[in-house]
Amino acid sequence: MVLAYLLGRAGIAVTLLEAHQDFDRDFRGDSLHPYTLELLDSLGLADRLLALPHHKARFFRFHTPAGSITTADYGKLSSPYNYVALMPQAKFLDFLAAETAALPSASVRTGANVVELNREDGRIIGVRYRDDAGTHDLAAALVVGADGRFSRIRRLADAPARSLGATTDLLWFRLPHRPEDPPDADVDLFFGRHHYVGLLAGTDGWQVGYSLPKGGYAEARERGVGPIRTFLADHVPWLADRADLLTDFSQTTLLSVDISRVERWWRPGLLLIGDAAHVISPVGGNGILMAVQDAVTAANHLVRDRSDAALARVQAEREHAIRQVQAQQVRLEQRAARARERGRPAAPPYRLLRLLTGIPGARARAARANAYGPTPPQLDLGS
Description:
By secondary structure, the chain is α+β, with helices and mostly antiparallel strands. It has eleven helices and 21 strands.
């Protein structure tokens, strides 16, 4: 979506195809990092976007049986957007779709489900898609696959993603806000012996993610929601007064955590970006940030050059950052797996974390690393 807007803004003819009729569904990536907000500000969009309901998250915290630690403080960033904006992703996409559709050279078609990549002499020259009116061919100088972790474009292009070894799944559900909830709870992790809970503040209540070992969904479903409610009562006691609102597994959504990457993000006439090219785990909420930065890098090249060489340059410029983020996530996954295998607590070492986060500037550096990612690209506004 971001790339479609950037290309359309530069006067490039662009058609965005969305398989669903609208964006009104439950996404799990609701975090807009300072980098993204600064980008939107440079495009004159930030004020209108932030007029929509959102929560300004300033802190990232770990809560362990030994104590609580603030690991990142976004308020220490020298940015007008010194927070992570937690906004339902559907609202963000609705906003961008409307802004894109308003551009003279861009169009947005919803309910348009791509069923085939059209080829000529080994080159992708467009797509075949199906909507309520039938099947249509759309010619294109370049097809961009930005259709997420289960990308159909990636599958049609025969560009498999190699798994890097996620060991955790997450069960997501929602619980309501109450006036007496801690005012500084933003993005918090609560660790128990065998599980942890991720908590995200938001405009529609709390998003709660309960960790499971990879492949542990069937066993958890068999045990029911009782263990989850018990965990909340033990480790997030201020949510205990509403944990009984979780009565059935039908209220939960399984997020099968994945960390994977396509070896080559492009084919002649095709570019994959975002989760279609590299799946980022929910740890750190980096998925949207990495996808937006892919779009900025792609726009910087594609406005002037849509050759295969330009597609290769997009991957070359972004791949190091993606590898760095994914390597860190794999290390965290492996550490969690080793703890489970050895029967050790899932919580990180409290004394070490306290020592590290007590170093002057450590929380600001951690916030900056998460707010911008490695080697953040700058949009060429002259494009």
